[in-house]
Amino acid sequence: MDQFTLNLIVIAMSFALYFGIAIWARAGSTAEFYAAGQGVGPVVNGMATAADWMSAASFISMAGLIAFGGYNNSVFLMGWTGGYVLLALLLAPYLRKFGKFTVPEFVGDRFYSTSARMVAVICLLVISITYVIGQMVGVGVTFARFLEVSTTTGLLIGSAVVFAYAVFGGMKGITYTQVAQYVVLISAYTVPAIFISLSLTGNFIPQLGLIGGYAPTGGETYFLDKLDQVVTDLGFAAYTADTSNMLNMFLVTMSLMIGTAGLPHVIIRFFTVAKVSDARISAGWALVFIALLYTVAPAVGSMARLNITTTFWPGAVQGETFSQPALSIAEIDSNPDLTWIRNWEKTGLLAFTDRNGDGLIQYFNEPAPLTAANKAVADANAALAAAAADADKAPLEAAVAAAVTARDAVLAETNLGGRSLAEQGFVGNELTTVNNDIMVLANPEIAALPGWVIALVAAGGLAAALSTAAGLLLAISSAISHDLIKGALKPNITEKGELLAARISMAGAIALATWLGLNPPGFAAQVVALAFGLAAATIFPVLMMGIFSTVVTKEGAIVGMLVGLISTAVYIFLYLGWFFIPGTNLLPNTPAAHFMGISPAAFGPIGALLNFATAYLVSMMTKAPPQDVQDLIQSIRVPKGAGAAQAH
User: Fold this and answer.
1) Cβ atoms of residues 406 and 398 within 8 Å
2) H-type helices in 414-450, by residue range?
3) How many domains does the chain fold into?
4) Which Pfam families match (predicted)?
5) In this predicted model, what pLDDT tens digit does every residue of 392-430 receive, in sequence order?
């Protein structure tokens, strides 16, 4: 059976499972649509929460980020798992005891203000819409590669699948579908990791293989030492190298932590359990289920990095990096185990070019001076080619010659493997594009694993993207139907009318998400940075103050959220462009240009501090919250049935 047919069968089977669950768990009331009737058990909710959280970013992108960023990108592991600890300890049980369906509803009641509720709706919509773009792009990429359709077709198929089980099932259908999706995605992530760990380290437990020996050379060299040796030979930073900016790393970690704890689609999962204690227990189970993937991710990333590097430098498998020539184009086209290279080349996520015409693909870290010199040569040649036939070409030819001479000087001065690039005949890095997002999806193909494993990974990537997309779309739908329509525009709407509005809102949100997936405003990483930064700067602070402070007023909450929202968005847009439109950034997105070294992805905690400070300052200048609101705050922090302390 060919790989395409196998992919089609496995993906079709997973979709049939999702559809069957959606029909079985169709929502019949607003309580079932928003919160699954608040009857979900803690283990089931923990598994559904893990699937809701482990998005395309976690499944597809995180290992790629770790693969090419090494230790620096461990912030994703620390931040995302740490966020669940905060959620379990500080938010989930109290929000469940409050007994409402949505985050804006809590904000509106706690801060006794429809305006506060509407500001929370705005923050929720901005966060959820930006985050869902990455999920839809992930669906398109996965379909495009494994079902050999266009990205547009893939997106439309994915949108139809989400529509089928989310619009009709609501939270009830989504919950049980996410349980199935978790089983699919965790299997798809760990099974290839086990195979690859066995081949590279001889250990079937990837977490132990990461710190074990390198099997192809007898295990005498540690796996990470081998990886460091290969990547440094090629001019890259050591994989295990420490960060150069600990402040930025700390702030990025904090942004991911409090951003996770403030993501609306994650928080609403804790409204689905029957009891307050179940909210805390389900958060614990969610951490367990998430850990099954997150502890494997460093092994997946590092092993993928070594596999793709040794594919292009075959001598590095058992000997020195340059002990054999680089991979040849003839080998790529003739070896069945390398067909993945041409397949991924079609997607645009992998690209190479034979710059020196030797038929080999030399992959290394091209230094900035060489990049600039190669560009100068290309620009000079382009100017010569564009000149009119009767133009005086002597100056243009002289410019080409000067650019080539300058590049030759750079090549003579740049060493790689103990010899200059000029001596080796290299003129620049020839593996020009390796997108982070292909590392997990292509990993089984790179390692030449069986076809059923490749098909399983395809189904897992789709499960990860679709599960999170469904949660985000439900958060958007709930904000529109429950908070905007019922909470402000039409308070007397019937339950039947609200359920219809919820389903229409969900359909509209899916249409918007599909359009944004087809026309993304920027790279997925940029959009995700905005989502986490805004969640950290807006939702997390207002929930913390709403639960643990009796002095913050409605005016303080509203102004605090607006300050957090605007300051974080402006800082991100200064470096990444206004609404991510290329060329509109006012400052270059480089470490040297960042204020105090703080990158756009690290600004969330600063926005949160501004939110807290503004809220308390404004609260000091406005009338204290009503006594009944203060009593409400005290009551949600007291365990049910607790009495007064007794003397003994």
Assistant:
1) no
2) 421-424, 438-446
3) 2
4) SSF (PF00474)
5) 888 889 999 999 999 999 999 999 888 899 999 999 999
